[in-house]
Amino acid sequence: MIDSAGAGTARFDLAAMKQALERSDVDTLIGLYADDAEMEIVDRDRPPSAPMRLVGRPAIEAFWRDVCAREMTHAVGEEVVGGGRAAFVERCAYPDGCHVVSAMTLELRDGRIRRHLTVQAWDEMSCS
């Protein structure tokens, strides 16, 4: 498994991101983003024509604090990294049986996330 990617002279630590997501460690997670980072999320409620857009680390932090405060498990896999980019799949499970799969791609700059795209699918039958 590759755990870092060069972007400029700094290196991105994908292993730290994986561990932060799986442990719901928001402080470590948000530290991986650039101050001017942007995040875009496409899912069943936010289609490609009207995705959720978060601009700046404070907005992204609020998003991750909400997600990580929920009672669910996170498992990260299928990591790919190189050329100033990283990608992975996150699989989440709620106690009520709802499952979510998110494909995430990251654009990296100076060892931090500059742009983050998430496309996610939810179990339609078990998620309210």
Written overview of the protein:
This protein is of the alpha+beta class. It has one domain (4-122): Nuclear Transport Factor 2, Chain: A. The chain has three helices and eight strands. It has helices at 14-23, 26-30, 57-69, and strands spanning 4-7, 10-13, 33-42, 52-55, 73-82, 85-93, 99-109, 112-122. Strand 6 and strand 7 (99-109) form a beta hairpin. The chain is globular. The N and C termini lie far apart (36 Å). The model is unreliable at 1-9 (pLDDT under 50).
Helix proportion of residues, in percent? 10-25%
Segments where pLDDT lies below 50 for 5+ residues?
1-9
Structural class: alpha+beta
Distance between the termini: 36 Å
The top-level CATH class is: Alpha Beta
CATH architecture: Roll
Query: How many domains is the backbone divided into?
Result: 1
- The CATH topology turns out to be Nuclear Transport Factor 2, Chain: A
SS elements, strand count: 8
Radius of gyration: 14 Å
Main-sheet strand order equals 4-3-8-7-6-5
SSE run = EEHHEEHEEEE
Q: Into which percentage range does the β-strand content fall?
A: over 45%
Envelope shape:
globular
- Largest sheet entry: 6 strands, mixed
Q: How many alpha or pi helices?
A: 3
What average pLDDT do the residues reach? 89
Organism: Neoroseomonas terrae
Domain SnoaL-like: 18-116
InterPro entries: NTF2-like_dom_sf, SnoaL-like
Protein name: Nuclear transport factor 2 family protein
